[in-house]
Amino acid sequence: MSNINSKTRRIVLISLFSALAYICMFVFRIKVSFLTFDAKDAVITVGAMLLGAPSGIVISFITAFAEYISVSDTGIYGFIMNFVSSAAFSSTAALIYRRRKTINTAIVSLMIAVVSMTAVMLISNLIITPFYTGLKVAEVAALILPLLLPFNLTKGLLNASLVLIIYKPTMNALHRANFIKDRENFKYNKKSIFVLLIGLLLLAVSIVVFVLLLHGSFEWVRKL
Asked: Rounded to an integer, what distance in angstroms lies between the CA atom of residue 63 and that of residue 20?
């Protein structure tokens, strides 16, 4: 990749992250009521933190559209919700992290992304969910505390934990494959084990909340 220009490199990486995010929809899915978690937002966020918030929005759109035209059973409403959720989380994390690329900033950016995505999705649910489910706005509002708020917060924390776990291995792999010139992004030092433990802890807590408190169920592989 060293002999191609930056524009071509960006296009290739956007395509790569879009493909990986799409694949993630078929593995490690958790269903909670009419809501579904999959790991694609973590992949999209890694791409956004590497390439910038605008690229994260593009990857979010491509992934959501690919799901919409191939396997989605929620139609245009599901497409909108998927895009908004992914774009809100990934672009928020990228905007903050890329101002100062340190582990501490990465953690802060991901926590802020959790809050911002949750707020955006609560508003989006009040606007879009009534069209999709046939529920009244007041009925959707009644679901905020028992379902929508805990689901989106847990979804955000699970995405954040996955980003902390996969960012460094992803950067190393891209560096070895000559997709990126160096590994200056998200450098790991003595804090690396601590960050990994935070990611694993958040991952475990999020799964427990999904399964035990929200009564979610796993869908490990989804057939095409």
From this structure: 9
d(CA 201, CA 184): 26
Given a contact cutoff of 8 angstroms between Cβ atoms, the answer to whether 171 and 192 are in contact is no
Tell me, what's the pLDDT at 187? 55
The predicted structure's pLDDT at residue 2: 47
Closest CA to 215 of 14, 10, 33: 33
Instruction: Calculate mean pLDDT across residues 7-18.
Output: 92
The whole-angstrom separation of Cα 48 and Cα 212 is 32
Q: Which two tokens stand for residue 84?
A: 């908004």
Whether the CB-CB separation of 116 and 88 falls below 8 Å is answered with yes
Contacts 24+ apart (CB under 8 A), 64-69: 66/18, 66/22, 67/22, 67/25
